[in-house]
């Protein structure tokens, strides 16, 4: 779960990059994380940021974490800087019923939300020094040369324990939560991007959190990333 103040860090990150958007910048990597529910993506991301922040050039430009909730808050609450507008994409979705519903004011069209999320994810990835979790970020950024894609998995007992500890659920409640969330993730990627999250070819690296601690997982990701993008890191 995101720590208190995570959204403030997101806003600071966007403001920092928007302020110097016209200046030439080094291109830093971005990391996307696709995950099974309860595999510990937030805990690993938190440790990964601590490692990378010490090793990456230009330390005043911080690594920042964005998950689906934080991206949604950016869409809903943040007055997006003009730099985002220059990266508007043509809509790739043809959800006719949603379009009709939006036209008559029945509900916000899902394709519009996906479209906005896609715009934001692409721009955050271009900025670099971001960890983007979920929302199809691995597929959206797959053509960007600075992107690095991770899949996090774990045995079901590990995931159940994690969800129970985080949300204070009973074991049956945790199992129901995991099934529901994993199904939603699968439907989202399949419906909007026509890909399966289990497709191993989408990722540079798959981490089994049942075999590594969160600290070890972060170290493996950081080490692999630094070897792939050595120009962005200090020795």
Give the SSE map.
Blueprint: H1 6-19, E1 30-35, H2 41-55, E2 64-66, H3 68-77, H4 82-85, H5 96-103, H6 110-127, E3 130-133, H7 137-140, E4 147-153, H8 156-167, H9 171-193, E5 205-208, H10 214-228
Compressed to H and E, one letter per element, the order equals HEHEHHHHEHEHHEH
What radius of gyration results from the CA coordinates?
18 Å
CATH class of the domain at 28-78 and 127-228: Alpha Beta
Uncertain segments: 81-108
The name of the CATH topology of the domain at 28-78 and 127-228 is Rossmann fold
Helix content: 40-55%
CATH architecture of the domain at 28-78 and 127-228: 3-Layer(aba) Sandwich
N- to C-terminal separation? 32 Å
CATH superfamily (homologous) name of the domain at 28-78 and 127-228: P-loop containing nucleotide triphosphate hydrolases
Briefly note the structural class of the backbone. Answer: alpha/beta
Main sheet properties = 5 strands, parallel
Give the helix tally: 10
Estimate the mean pLDDT confidence.
81
What is the 3D shape?
globular
Q: Looking across the biggest beta sheet, what order are the strands in?
A: 2-3-1-4-5
Total beta strand runs: 5
Strand content: 5-15%
